[in-house]
Amino acid sequence: MAASASISKTIYVGPFVHSTSLTDLEIEEKGAIGVDENGVIAFVERNVSQAGIEDVKSRNPGWQDAQVIKLEGNGFFFPGFIDTHTHASQHPNTGLFGKTTLLDWLQTYTFPMESSLSSVPTAQRIYQSFVSRTLSHGTTTCAYYATIHVPATNLLADICLKRGQRALVGRVCMNSDLSPEYYRDESVETSVRNSQASIDYIRSIDPKGEIVKPIVTPRFAPSCTSDCLSAISKLAQETNSHIQTHISENKGEIALVQELFPKSKSYTDVYDTHDLLTPKTILAHAVHLSPEERQTILARKSKISHCPASNTAITSGCAPIRTMLNEGLTIGLGTDISGGFHPSILENVRQAVWVSRHLALQTGDDATKLSTEEALYLATRGGAAVVGLEEQVGGFDVEKEWDAQMIHLGSVDEEGSSDAVVHEGPVDVFGWESWPDKVEKWVYSGDDRNTIAVWVRGRLVHKTALYSGPKDATTL
Ligand SMILES: O=c1[nH]c(=O)c2nc[nH]c2[nH]1
Ligand SMILES: [Zn+2]
């Protein structure tokens, strides 16, 4: 059942912050955003005093009885984060990678972990925990890799739907002998049949794809034989599905692709010649692509998921995001658990900025650096475009849906007050900061303790003890 439990017309009153372009953030101190019963933004008003709410109601016919959720103090509303690439099944391995790099990391940590999700109770435990964890970090949409197992993949879709997190959920296809015998599809037919089964199931629980959608998921070129890639691409076309895979993450991986697909001009060419590069394709990593490969991806309108924490943790490399943005590629951020060590997109905003600075240190070109505004854009509107939801989410515009987080920043007591210091979360605001400074303090030192409430399509899907607003009829 799609998560459209009844919600009341609500006016969210208080500061809001969102991207208006790649380089610009709007910070409105006195906002009032009207969200209707379908979770759609009906109006966005600016410069509204607390006393002016009655005027807002009377200016907007039909809003007289709307409930009001007021944000006081140093907080602000911010769009929900979009994680364009993560592996829910690897959640228990978060933070574990040692000194491995991609190919030995897969064999050492990843395949054994993923194979354990043949047990549905194990999958239940891992997926419940991960969806809850990502929601608590303000992630309202996720593109998920599950595992090869149909029951566990379907369960992940059930959990996202129940908890109200938007998700693209992919059963992983992998039939080559790169993977151990105990964890791979037995044949191309199995890959197609099981992927089809999962697509059918996900469409049966959410026929309009309002919250969950299937995504065809060939793990990466070395995991699939050529006939498997062709069959899976045909399935994606026939079912008009999104596609996700990995590309050009690690130099050893690229050499392996060349060895396995000797007739292909490049890694990108492998996917292109198997018709896997479509406007609905998400390509994770894209660290070492050549200019020609990037041009092909751009021409096919496929999208890029930048996974900076993962690229550093398993020492894959520094993706040239400034170059790719300049070339016109569509880019979002991905946590890539558990190559990535943190389930938070806010953490990956920081990591994207750090990686771009390391690149700038190497090249001596300051233009390589991403600004805070740019990284926040990738986390919201950029990510929305990557998962095909740019009309629905990513910013606070009329007719977009209310996918939002309430950010609360702690206040440091006035001088001379009690000795007992109580910290409300990791960010201390002294009262003299400008609004851009407050936002920056959140970006660089905030975490999930600052995310005190989260909504998807107007439904409250996460809250902490600091949230004092009305609770939804839906269970949290
Ligand atoms: O970061 C990654 N995580 C994975 O699970 C994976 N599989 C193939 N390539 C991969 N890269
Ligand atoms: Zn990945």
Topology of this structure?
Blueprint: E1 10-19, E2 25-35, E3 41-45, H1 53-59, E4 67-70, E5 76-79, E6 81-87, H2 102-115, H3 120-136, E7 139-145, H4 150-163, E8 166-170, E9 172-173, H5 188-205, E10 212-218, H6 226-238, E11 242-247, H7 251-260, H8 267-273, E12 281-285, H9 291-300, E13 303-306, H10 308-313, H11 321-327, E14 331-333, H12 345-363, H13 372-386, E15 404-407, E16 410-411, E17 428-429, H14 435-445, E18 451-456, E19 459-463
The structure holds xanthine and zinc ion.
What does this structure look like?
The chain has helices at residues 53-59, 102-115, 120-136, 150-163, 188-205, 226-238, 251-260, 267-273, 291-300, 308-313, 321-327, 345-363, 372-386, 435-445, and strands spanning 10-19, 25-35, 41-45, 67-70, 76-79, 81-87, 139-145, 166-170, 172-173, 212-218, 242-247, 281-285, 303-306, 331-333, 404-407, 410-411, 428-429, 451-456, 459-463. It is an alpha/beta fold and 476 residues long. The chain folds into two domains: 10-79 and 396-463, Urease, subunit C, domain 1 (Roll), CATH 2.30.40; 81-386, Metal-dependent hydrolases (TIM Barrel), CATH 3.20.20. Strands 6, 7, 8, 9, 10, 11, 12, 13 and 14 form a nine-stranded parallel beta sheet that branches. Helix 5 runs parallel beside helix 6, helix 8 runs parallel beside helix 9 and helix 12 (345-363) crosses helix 13 (372-386). The model has no long low-confidence stretch (mean pLDDT 96). It is an enzyme of class 3 (hydrolase).
